[in-house]
């Protein structure tokens, strides 16, 4: 069977590995409308390497390789049917997916449907199936409630009413998290406990890190463990930074590369008002807000310096977005060394800061809010 790759919008095409006599991933899935699967995968310590493959099925069966034998997170979706809906629209990709961790050199077999499936391939998957089974009582309740609420939304029922109906799900999610947290605590020497940990809330992670044995932390699951640890510590640093990002406090100094690869120092703008715009090409609201920001830039040119700080993009995507949207202000890229978004306590995009001529924080606005431009108007009177 030939495994073809269909790249996401904006990416190129490539040829995927042909299945060998012993494919990494195989199985049978029911309930797929088309004869094709969409497979997203990425190494657990390199999300930027995310790729999307299309895999053909024969009578619901499939077999393929992803190559590059490293620890990977994999999602398998059903590719939408090419047949238009009754209203002529194109069917959307369902968010239902088979989700699993692909272990290096360990084939996995999948059976069931996108709603409910079983993973086979050794003790790791047996252990994970056990966790999933323990959570089923609550996950089924949540699934049923999701169907009810989506139907209410289609009927135009107000959001407040839908939220009231959905309220019990909060307790059920809490029960699922407790089951998973208890599993990690009771099984500190199992590799699967690291994967289960990745599904816990941040509050639960702190205790879980101290439970795992060194063998588990340093073994096959080390890339995932390290990514979680780094992410957890980054979030703690972000929370600490938020407390310091108060009006009147000095804005953290930083140096980042501009479009030409030259250093840009925030201190170089001392004596001027500065707008720092934390954004990304992947952020819909960031892009939507560009026209208004351009108006403000033109309105206050020479009075306010605007600095766009791109976050969570590759260099190519950043430069392409700057060119496509013709961003006229200073543009720099945050590559996380150090992470300027963490230094400024940024947890949502876009986030804008106004820095006064003395280098102190004057204002912070999260999201696209008219209040930001009203503030600039009042500031410049």
TrEMBL record:
Report the record's Gene Ontology biological process terms.
cytochrome complex assembly
Main localization of the protein? other
- InterPro entries, per the entry: AhpC/TSA, Thioredoxin-like_sf, Thioredoxin_domain, Thioredoxin_ResA/DsbE_sf
* GO cellular component assignments: cell envelope
| CDD domains registered for this protein in UniProt | TlpA_like_family
Keyword flag Disulfide bond: yes
Q: What is this protein called?
A: AhpC/TSA family protein
Can you name the source organism? Answer: Phocaeicola dorei
